[in-house]
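Researcher: Quick one. two chains, 860 residues in total.
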Amino acid sequence: MKNIELKVLNLLKGAKEASLKLGNISTADKDRAILAMASALLKNTKYILSENAKDVALARDSAKTFAESSKNKRQPAFLLDRLTLTEKRIKEMADSLKQIAALKDPVGKILRQWKRPNGLIIRKISVPIGVIGIIYESRPNVTSDCAGLSLKSGNVCVLRGGSEAINSNIAIRKVITKCLEKFGIPKTAITMIDVADRFAVEFLLKQDSLIDVVIPRGGEGLIRYVAENSLIPVIKHYKGVCHLYVDKDADIEMALDIMLNAKVQRPGVCNAIEKMLVHKDIAHKFLPKAAGILDDKGVELRGCLKTLKILKGIKKAAEKDWYKEYLDLILTIKIVKDVDEAISHINKYGSRHSDAIVTKSKLTAEKFLKEVDSACVYHNASTRFTDGYQFGMGAEIGISTDKIHARGPMALEELCTYKYIILGSGQLRT
Amino acid sequence: MKNIELKVLNLLKGAKEASLKLGNISTADKDRAILAMASALLKNTKYILSENAKDVALARDSAKTFAESSKNKRQPAFLLDRLTLTEKRIKEMADSLKQIAALKDPVGKILRQWKRPNGLIIRKISVPIGVIGIIYESRPNVTSDCAGLSLKSGNVCVLRGGSEAINSNIAIRKVITKCLEKFGIPKTAITMIDVADRFAVEFLLKQDSLIDVVIPRGGEGLIRYVAENSLIPVIKHYKGVCHLYVDKDADIEMALDIMLNAKVQRPGVCNAIEKMLVHKDIAHKFLPKAAGILDDKGVELRGCLKTLKILKGIKKAAEKDWYKEYLDLILTIKIVKDVDEAISHINKYGSRHSDAIVTKSKLTAEKFLKEVDSACVYHNASTRFTDGYQFGMGAEIGISTDKIHARGPMALEELCTYKYIILGSGQLRT
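Model:
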């Protein structure tokens, strides 16, 4: 066995052992530990910032090299921004932990209980999943967020951040794990795979007896890599190709507001819209207004052939446009003949993330809400609400476009599974 | 693209299309279709038996070859039994469909609904998963059972049975799919991958845009193959290494009854016990009685060193024995010093399936029920109850020892996922 394998295996065994102990930690102790983690982050702000500065300096160097050899100067700046910590951001990380401590403990709820004719009592109760692998990129705040959410839900987290944030992540982990032992929580409840070799991830993804689920967070490339290499169940979303459908019975002012909010308020996130479908009967009235507003905000428009007849001079959409997540100020528009065509289009090209209809017709809305096969389907609201906080879950560990276990925003409840406890008095099967 | 790939892709596209239509079929029509399937099985018994006879003849031939070249004459007979249909078995298949028709429709339940401060109403509702791939071996009854359960839960099933049962499976599929169209259900709602090439399975397992979840049913080899090759989420159990722990405070008569039932009543199934842990304080009293009873039933005993001192002459257990699922009349026994050692042993060597404690101590039972990390944990009852029917679910599509989505017996509810419907009045995110 290679040296790297041994190191990873040792770390994972520590994580697994901790997970069997976490069930016996009281809610109060978990909450106290999470609050202590928040304080420790604030107290050690200087140290964390100095370690983060090392990562930022390295990233700046490579961004410079990248910019010199490329025309795309925006992307590295965007990544640098994600990587950079500030006093304010560390305070936000601490605040997020405080919020997590204040949430209800999701573990130990009796989800259902029933009695069989033979007298057996079957009780279905919520329990932690066990060991959760989190593989992520850039943002160092993921380290403390995921540690807090995992601990609160009685899970051990195994964190593997990107190499670009390694110093920041190690510093955060060091600071927060110091708070665990005084509450009886093993240090390995927050385990970090700090082995600097990409093979470590490949190896980790095969350890299905030590990790129960993997949640990858980052770009589509990272997530595909994890899905393709993992023997462990993965909960994920590849991308968010979200749609707004403006029906013939739409309130046009509302449709324009929702369009603007869903496209422009924060275009680089997965719940922003990338496509707009417009009913043919309203297109002539709606599209010129929409184009005017979007143009003011610097949004590039692309369109189907019918759209091009109304919005002259915009770029023609290619087939691949319909699948694409731009994460940018680009919107592709299609005119559809009815709600059925809108639904079919979304189910074919969408990513099952978040899609919205604007209409005053209850019947049309019901059809859309029922037949669009996405995690979150909206009537008369912006898709930007697909988010654990906005849903009132108090937190978010990720978003799932899978259909297994969790769909849409995932928080504490989704970090739990269940078990059956069966109480008998000597029952035998005949 | 290869010919096989094209064929499989075509079949899967038909399945996916059907899945988008199934949501609009009423409960009444689904139930009528399932009842019609039951009648059709009965009406076509002769035809199905004649097709099954072809499979059995082929299997008998290869069993003969196998027996001549091997000492193990039992296994082929066991497989032949699983493969063989009789009038009675077809009647049971029809009965099973009738039972499924009588169950409650799991789709469309409002699981929760809440209102956000901004007025958004968030509704979480149960919906079908979509397309369910089922990869199975031998037993042809799986074909109609899975078709019925999938249809009832609004899912399309993609069935891939073993080559040894190909004629039987095709016949059953042919008979039951004839009942679909008159209820508005596309024939491809029950899709069978009848391409006679193992590569078809490998290719199918990569189609994560067309299949939502794969449930493999069969031996550990098949299940590992599926888990290792699938890009689609898999729900599975590799094996059932179930334990009975006889505590020092056990009612000895009850413990003996449960032991006998859990080991002997049907040793070839996953919820039978394979190991027995006995508290050291009760071992001298309990083990000789247990050995006498088990010996009468032809059970081979193996034991740890301490057990060997009490039960002289039995075989010493090897390390690998503790991991092994015998599916046979073999039981391996370990003497433990307390409930903690029993729990640690089960969490280390078990398969997270079903484990039981026999004790009169409520405190000890609570500890065991809480800390044993298995899908089903029993107090004073046989592990043999881990089964959808025994749990009162009315059906079973499989058992999961994973922690994601479903744990333990899986039936209609576990064939559903959820989606969020969000009702607004123009809300924007700020």
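Chain B has a mean pLDDT of 94.
Researcher: Thanks, that's what I needed.
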